[in-house]
Specification:
This protein is of the alpha+beta class. The chain has a single domain, classed as Dihydrodipicolinate Reductase, domain 2 (2-Layer Sandwich), CATH 3.30.360.10. It has helices spanning 21-29, 43-46, 75-81; strands at 5-12, 34-36, 52-58, 61-68. α2 links the parallel β2 and β3 (52-58). The longest helix is centred in the first third of the chain and has 9 residues, at 21-29. The termini are far apart.
């Protein structure tokens, strides 16, 4: 791994959530720089981009696997994410 952050978030299964992707995926899909992937993302997928790649898996627990290039997530990346309606202070 040359650059970026890969994170694995685990949550124990509970009876009230059958498919975690039913909640997680729609909330991520509304963001322009978030890519919901069907496969497990790698840091190479997001290297040198402003994208946050995420997928959800279930195997005895709920797993959210995600990666991003943390070197792009600074001031230059923030400038790319600002909508035309917003202004810098």
């Amino acid at each position: 791994m040359d650059r970026g952050i890969f994170s694995t978030i685990m949550r124990a299964q509970s009876g009230n959530i059958q498919k975690p992707s039913d909640r997680i995926v729609p909330s991520y899909m509304q963001h322009a720089f978030c890519r919901v992937m069907s496969r497990i993302p790698t840091t190479k997928d997001s290297a040198f981009t402003n994208f946050f790649d995420v997928t959800v898996r279930v195997a005895r627990a709920h797993f959210v696997l995600c990666c991003l290039d943390n070197l792009i997530k600074g001031a230059a990346g923030a400038a790319c994410r600002i909508s035309p309606d917003e202004q810098l202070a």
